[in-house]
Amino acid sequence: MTCHHVVRPSGTAAGLPAVELRRPHVEPMIYQRDHAQPPATAITHVGGPLWLKLGAAQQGRVRRLYMICTPLIAAVVWLGAARGVRGWGTLGHATVAYVAQNFVEPEVAAWAQGVLNDTSSSYFANIASWADTFRATAAGKWSAPLHFIDAQDSPPTSCNVNFARDCTAAGCSISAVANYTQRVGDGRLTAANTAEALKFLVHFIGDITQPLHDEALDVGGNTITVTFDGFTTDNLHSDWDTFIPQKLIGGSSLADAQAWATTLTTSIKSGAFKALAPGWVAASKLSDPVGSATAWAADANALVCTVVMPNGVAALQQGDLFPTYYNGVVPTVELQIAKGGYRLADWLNKIFAANIAKRGVAGRAPAAGHLPDLSGRDLLPSGPEKSREMLIREAMDGGGCGCSKRSSHDH
């Protein structure tokens, strides 16, 4: 997330460190920061000044992306569904949300329904992809870096995540989880701010479990062209996001997601995942949101070496990924979706118990003369504003067109 003109916090709720990140609908009196838009750093055209920051190989990939994407931009806008760097697709995110709904405590469910103003049985699923929709707007473009962390490792021989190395000053999924954890538990925010924080948190905890959202190589697989199920212009990232889950489930509706979540929930409660589930949240410590989210990201990133591309990129481009590769990775896709939902529920249960339950669901008004200082620039690394991978994503039509000739109504 982009940080500008912020200072070290004087205090945070429940002793949590805050990571202040640019976000919508922020009240100037409370947050005491400038609201200028982040400086434009997109690669506006091939050969522009930021183009020179890319290596020759990456320049070649971007040129190819432009050649493929340009004719598709109008169609993508019309469809409202570009395939790109968007965590799990709507099916995956909704399934994570439904799994979480099955494991949050009843009082947490009631609180969340109140915050989201949604008492339906899909209160999390209905907003699970809101962050993707927001990101695609002019007002939400700043939030694009928050959906991933670009691990600068070397798969398939070495996979690892290092927050200080991999999270730039623009922010990342780890800093986003830390920031919105602090915000959603702070009763001094407005109802709108709290709802936004919860919607971001639901989405980003899901994003972190998608292995290619924790990897820099080939922009998280976005520039790896593959053939999947007969489609020859797919990219690996989009297949993991959307087309592998949809192939498995046979659809992408909320009903499909709910049915999948029911199956995964049964596996967690009494099936193959029962013995594994406690380990999924063993590193989840509310007192250390950065460390917790880093552990989740590292867990998913390790799968890039062992499952996603164990034999390297070239092996992925030798024939159709269906059915052999598909059959090999489907168990991991289901595992990661289950992890995302279970971790999300556990995290929200912890936030509620530590912060919200103690003051009452209605929250509290700020004391006279005391407004919260929610800045947290100290927790963001002091590296470059944006990574090379971020610049490439921006070149890919505002954050990642995915560049597949296959159309989809899913993200």
TrEMBL record:
One of its GO terms (molecular function) is endonuclease activity. InterPro entries: PLipase_C/P1_nuclease_dom_sf, S1/P1nuclease. Gene3D superfamilies: P1 Nuclease (1.10.575.10). Keywords: Disulfide bond, Endonuclease, Glycoprotein, Hydrolase, Metal-binding, Nuclease. Pfam families: S1-P1_nuclease. Belongs to the nuclease type I family. CDD domains: S1-P1_nuclease (cd11010). It comes from Mycena indigotica. GO terms for biological process: DNA catabolic process. This is Putative nuclease S1. It comes from the Eukaryota.
